[in-house]
Amino acid sequence: MKLLILSASTGGGHDMRAFALQTWWEKKVGTEAVVSHPLESGATLYRFGTELYNIIQKKAPWLHTFYFSFLEHAKLHRSTRILLGKKKFLQSLRDHKPDIILSVHAHLNHAYFKLAKTWNPAVKFVVYCGEFADGHGFSKHWVNPYTDLFTGPFSSTCEAAIKYGMPRNKVMEAGFILREPFYQKKDFSRTAKYLKSLGINPEEKFILLGTGANGTNNHLQVFKELTRSIKLHEYRQVVALCGKNEATLRNLISQAGKSKLTLIALPKVDAECMVALLSHTACLLARPGAGLSAEAVAMNTPIVFNLWGGVMPQESNNLNYWQLKTGRYLSIKAPKDLPTLLSAEIPSLGVTLPKCPPIIDILLGLTKDE
């Protein structure tokens, strides 16, 4: 029972889910699971589009409203006639011979679906959408009524897909797809010990500055504002996640010792570290992307959303979920907004995770039904 997972490196959430599922599948099912990036590997134009997305996310999130609108109307990946890289994708199907194909990206559900069914009509094609709820950033490309199944983390995700044309009998709530440490039983003594090894005092409140996989952040400005406004908040520790952004890491390290706040700047961290940080922090400051937001919900982490530079359309879907479930969310539009918010009760959302992602059994069930 071979699985092919289609992803794209726009932001970090898609790949996070793709590689998490690959690890879970090989552990639980014991057969091959391969992650493929048909956009980036298929054509220079598509690779440029992926890179442009990430540049916009880093530099000017508000611009993505126009980019998103263009992609919604351009239909670049819906027709096999105009799709670039068809031969490479078909060759990957012949090489891996998957029984199931699962897409975690909106732009991989139409032309690639048609090519897959042409190659083998019996192959199952499933969509997993990581969006939390409906909104103007819920792409119509997520929905293809001809695919075998649409799945998403919440009922609100599924209802959005039905609203946009997915048959109800082909829709299933599947929970999160996260890395293995998030599903393990919480052990606060163990995670506290882990934090101490990083130089963090788990007995004192700390604020966690989050970032996406591509290192999008404004950590330096936030830290300087927290330092200037130290009398307005109770936090004396700031932990900054820098991801792959080495420039931010260097700049923050240079600030160490210049403030009454203890600053711990970390490069890209693994899932065990994320579990420890999210389990203990009194406040996570992060953009409302689906990847880090899902991890925060899994750990019931209090969160303030960082909307500096504007809101990307897809991020609005997740903000809508917070509004739907709690009636409110806290956000900042500039670093100066944060210190006064820290004295308020910071909302959190939590879910109880099963022992492993439900999507595993859902996919296996598709083949058993035959």
Spell out the blueprint of helices and strands.
Layout: E1 3-6, H1 13-28, E2 33-36, H2 38-42, H3 44-59, H4 64-74, H5 86-96, E3 100-103, H6 111-119, E4 124-128, E5 149-152, H7 155-163, E6 171-173, H8 188-197, E7 206-209, H9 219-228, E8 237-241, H10 246-253, E9 262-266, H11 271-280, E10 283-286, H12 290-298, E11 303-306, H13 313-326, E12 330-332, H14 338-341, H15 359-368
Parallel strand pairs: 1-2, 1-3, 3-4, 4-5, 5-6, 7-8, 7-10, 8-9, 10-11, 11-12
Provide an overview of this structure.
41% of the residues lie in helices and 13% in strands. The strands form two sheets. A six-stranded parallel beta sheet has the order 2-1-3-4-5-6, with helices on both faces. Strands 9-8-7-10-11-12 form a six-stranded parallel beta sheet. Helix 5 packs across helix 6 and helix 8 crosses helix 11. The chain has 15 helices and twelve strands. The two termini are 14 Å apart. The protein has helices spanning 13-28, 38-42, 44-59, 64-74, 86-96, 111-119, 155-163, 188-197, 219-228, 246-253, 271-280, 290-298, 313-326, 338-341, 359-368; strands spanning 3-6, 33-36, 100-103, 124-128, 149-152, 171-173, 206-209, 237-241, 262-266, 283-286, 303-306, 330-332. With 370 residues, it is an alpha/beta fold.
